Amino acid sequence: MPIFFDENELTPEQRSRYSWAVAEYTRIQKENHERIVGMGKVPKAHAPSPQSALFARLLEGKAPLPYPPPTTYSYPWYDIIEKPGKYHVSVSGVHVEDGHESIELNQCTWPILRKSGGASDFLAFLRQAANRLSVSPDALALLEKALANQPEFIVTYGHWGEFRLSMGRIIRQGRRVMVEGSRFDLQTLEGGNPVIVRVLRTGAEIRAKADATLADVRNRVQEAGDELPPIDHITLASESSIPRSDSPEGDDIVEYDCDGWILERLTNL
User: Around Cβ 241, how many Cβ atoms within 10 Å?
Assistant: First the structure.
């Protein structure tokens, strides 16, 4: 779990706000508790701690938002509310309840208000390909049709207005041999049309370091035999499984841009 502040290294300003932050945090938790109970759900109690993004925010002297923000991987996502811009998100699934569609973004459920382009086909693909380890030809055809028509969604969260979800360009890293010629990644639902931006580490450098490590382990095996730490035996045994492409260039670690999902807030504060 992420740690948002160190209780042993608070600034004088944070120490002066501590009692106020605890009281404000308790008030907000009580309001959230009542709201969640009113929705027929079971609330979870959280005490102020270094793992609380809200409590860290209060210690910084920032006012709480009037409504709970969306979450990103279970943690409050303040930037999407307070800092205009385009944010890369992970799309993981779609839900339908009482005829209303919603989509999972960074493990948070966002109701869909409107959709255009290939959005309907993309949702149909998600429904057909719940297990993306085995995707039928019909589902793949739906995906190709959706991407060709530039899917776009207008989604919302709570009282925060409208957001646009669409395909844009994102930055990733990977081995050159895996990037060149790669297509849309069915597991992450992104990654199409890759363009290499720069080389971060050359394959020749990576191979030389790996060879030096293995040579060192071999020498120690000869000297120590069975007394060698188990991790060194594992390193030596895994030599044959170290991935290598046909040429050193294929093992380059590169930075590249590719297709990915972008979320942007449309409604001003």
Answer: 6
Q: How, if at all, do strands 75-76 and 86-89 pair?
A: unpaired
CB atoms within 10 A of CB 137: 7
Specify whether the CB–CB gap between 154 and 171 falls below 8 A: no
Burial 167-195 (b: 16+ CB within 10 A, else e): bbebebebbbbebeeeebebeebbbeebe
Alpha helices (runs of H) in 7-155, residue ranges in sequence order: 12-38, 53-59, 79-82, 119-128, 137-148
Whether the CA torsion 52, 57, 60, 61 is positive or negative: it is negative
Residues 46, 52: contact at Cβ < 8 Å?
A: yes
Residues 168-227: pLDDT tens digits? 999 999 999 889 877 788 888 899 999 999 999 998 988 888 778 777 777 776 676 555
Integer Cα distance of 250 and 202 in angstroms: 9
Instruction: Copy the structure tokens of residue 196.
Output: 């290499």
At 29, which amino acid appears?
A: Q
Residue 249 CA to chain centroid, in angstroms?
Answer: 29
174 forms bridges with which residues in the sheet? 254
Total-model pTM:
0.80
Q: Which two tokens stand for residue 56?
A: 């860290």
CA pair distance 85, 82, nearest whole angstrom: 9
Res. 111: pLDDT tops 90: yes
- Other Cβ atoms within 10 Å of 266 Cβ, number: 11
Lookup: tokens for 217: 């382990």
